[in-house]
Amino acid sequence: MSEADADAEAGGTPGREVWIEKYRPQRLADVAGHEDTVSRLESYIERNDLPHLLFAGPAGVGKTTCAVAIAREIYGDDWRTNFLELNASDERGIDVVRDRIKNFARSSFGGYDYRVIFLDEADSLTDDAQSALRRTMEQFSDNTRFVLSCNYSSKIIDPIQSRCAVFRFSPLADEAVETQVREIAAAEGIEVTDDGVDALVYAADGDMRRAINSLQAAATTGETVDEDAVYTITATARPEEIRTMVDDALDGDFSKARATLDALLTETGMAGGDVIDQIHRSVWEVGLSDREAVRLMERIGEADYRISEGANEQVQLEALLASLALDSSAAE
């Protein structure tokens, strides 16, 4: 696909497009980081034997891209008229299943054996809506294929899961994210330093959409995208800051660890949940013994649960650091 075509499809003017749409893969073969999944999907298309599909995995790893690419490869230029995309988080009631999906499934069309209905964030559907969807999948199985996308397959009722071929999308490997970032930077004529690429990969944490958005945002701050620009734009702490904070707590220096935490929350503007995530990612990089790592993981889990239940983020994070400092003092 030419850059001009991508520009037109994104609906923007050159240099002002949203890059996640401009560089969205148009074919399954172009989807990065999921070679086994892509190979299986391509075999379905080659045999003209597409089952109902369930894509499960975190955000930004290619679920929607694969669904649209399937439609493009099956229908070619007619894909828009034979592909219905719905977001279940916006339209999660039983009426959506009964009305929009059924009307699309019933409508007449020519030249193809079936149409494709893509239901994004299907785990947001109520149980009643999922039960209605199960019946609809049975009723229109002759001329309709469903592709469901969700973050957690456990929230999809078993009767629907058993009717689908399940594909689990894992977070993208760092190498796949790095390759894509470098290709986009080269296409846009942006200079990205090696440490800038490393920072983008770290901040993305397997989310390609976040990596591309961060690259586009950082590219507006200057001629060169380096790690300073990336960490500022993404409000992400440097890995060494997190490690130093944990080390200080483990060494019993609670005041110093608390000062670092306060800077992350107030100056960097990080959310408590993000700090927890970064501490969790750093557990095995701090050089702890197995016993210390297990103790830290226990504290992280407790703080994460309390924050998710609505507790004060700063209080819980300080309590986490304090417990590490107390454990250190007790060990001495």
TrEMBL record:
| Keywords, sorted A to Z | ATP-binding, DNA replication, Nucleotide-binding
Query: Which positions make up the signal peptide?
Result: none
* One family name in Pfam for this protein: Rep_fac_C
Name any one GO molecular function: ATP binding
Task: From the UniProt record, give one GO term of the biological process aspect.
Answer: DNA repair
Q: Which residues bind ATP?
A: G57, P58, A59, G60, V61, G62, K63, T64
What are the AAA+ ATPase domain coordinates in residue numbering? 49-174
An annotated GO cellular component: DNA replication factor C complex
Subunit: Heteromultimer composed of small subunits (RfcS) and large subunits (RfcL).
Q: Can you tell me which family this protein belongs to? A: Belongs to the activator 1 small subunits family. RfcS subfamily.
Protein role: Part of the RFC clamp loader complex which loads the PCNA sliding clamp onto DNA.
Could you tell me what this protein is called? Replication factor C small subunit
What is the organism field in this record?
A: Candidatus Halobonum tyrrellensis G22
The top of its lineage is: Archaea, Methanobacteriati, Methanobacteriota, Stenosarchaea group, Halobacteria
